[in-house]
Amino acid sequence: MTGEKAERVANCRSVRREHRLSKEEAETEQDEEAGRTKNRTKLFPNHKLIKSPSQPQPQQLQSSPAFGTDAPPARSEDFPVHECVFKGDIRRLSSLIRTRNIAQKDLHGNTPLHLAVMLGHKECAHLLLAHNALVKVKNAQGWSPLAEAISYGDRQMITALLRKLKQQSRENVEEKRPRLLKALKELGDFYLELHWDFQSWVPLLSRILPSDACKIYKQGINIRLDTTLIDFTDMKCQRGDLSFIFNGDAAPSESFIVLDNEQKVYQRIHHEESEMETEEEVDILMSSDIYSATLSTKSITFTRAQTGWLFREDKTERVGNFLAEFYSVNGLVLESRKRREHLSEEDILRNKAIMESLSKGGSLMEQSFEPVRRQSLTAPPANTITWEEYISAEPGKAPHLGRELVCKESKKTFKATIAMSQEFPLGIDSLLNVLEVIAPFKHFNKLREFVQMKLPPGFPVKLDIPVFPTITATVTFQEFRYDGFDESIFSIPSDYREDPSRFPEL
């Protein structure tokens, strides 16, 4: 493997270790709650009901008590799909799967797919995936079926889940596309400039953290983002001169383009990955920590920030051209978990050496990292827990299924400030539509997640957001004006050449 290829793959290790697509970072508790609410109101989210005289109509089917509600204690019969998956009863699962909600969570937050993966019931898992069971869903401990598959160590199952996750992500983007284009069309053309300043409580790290001035141009259903921050993880950043272009009129496979203005090359953001890329990503997942981060906003509150020594008063200042009221954000907690029961001592030592080198400013090129094709692990001991023991356990505290856990947990409370302005011309809903387009950039996805919270009145012209466990960012909306632009800025310059592998993480 060439040095350039090794760097690309090692970079993917850091980029993808949270086991998400380009859009996937730590999900907020609000996202989880929204998903649960959606599942309670839509009985068949993943497949169509096949009607026949012998089948009840949708309104006659009883939905089981949802996880996290104050419903009566769950009974075994409340979760028939879970039960037959737990027992490996593929024949009964086949008969239930068309008339039951396969996205339902049990009282421990597990879906049937979670159980199939944790117990190694591959036939059940493949049948659920064939009926489009959701892969991007977390249980009460914050783990997805893909995370549990990595722990179990069956390469074929990890690959199947990864492919389904990517397919569902593409379908989700396409499902949102008409609504997004309609919202962009109704929004006026504008220029928006915002600044990013990253800080850390880690002394050495804070010295090398970047800042960035981003310029966003919106015209019709086209968006252009100019930035100098190509890639940013908790260990390193990559600078450059980058433009991201979204052409709403183009076919989905050609809508998203990234320009490297220094090298004069462009890349279309992948909709499909090659077999080799998928296999390499599976190798990376199988040799890396399983990581889950949740931004908990359950107890968040906002209080007016104060200023003055003797006579205290509410803080009000101008941010750019906009008068803003400042608030203190209280109760914002980042809960992170890291698992490594699937790793060998050699894996752990190698990963530690790479991270230590990067934290000291070392280059990925200096590493002797040469990924090898990972084989499936020896299956964990056979499950001895009965269905009755599992389903009758205290909610959220199920007996552990699968490989014995090796897990480290941490919680960090963030103290943040947010400035809200009533003068800013753009609404939060409009901002969310724009951010949804440029969410492949990880730090913008974090911003989108944060502003989805219920904020004080106005527009957040300045805010602090947690980006990684040791890093926060201050985002400032410096300038906004309604304006028109030359259409050429939304096109690929004629002297640029295509490089499909310039940005492997996109």
UniProtKB/TrEMBL annotation:
Biased composition (Low complexity): 52-65
One MF annotation (Gene Ontology) recorded for this entry: signaling receptor binding
Gene3D superfamilies: Ankyrin repeat-containing domain
Entry keywords, A to Z: ANK repeat, Chaperone, Endoplasmic reticulum, Membrane, Repeat
Protein name: Ankyrin repeat domain 13C
GO cellular component term of the entry, any: endoplasmic reticulum membrane
Biased composition (Basic and acidic residues): 1-10
Subcellular location(s) of the protein: Endoplasmic reticulum membrane
Function: Acts as a molecular chaperone for G protein-coupled receptors, regulating their biogenesis and exit from the ER.
Keyword Repeat carried by entry: yes
Gene Ontology BP terms: protein retention in ER lumen
All residue ranges annotated as the Ankyrin repeat domain in the record: 224-481
Keyword Endoplasmic reticulum: yes
Region (Disordered): 1-76
Positions annotated as ANK repeat: 108-140
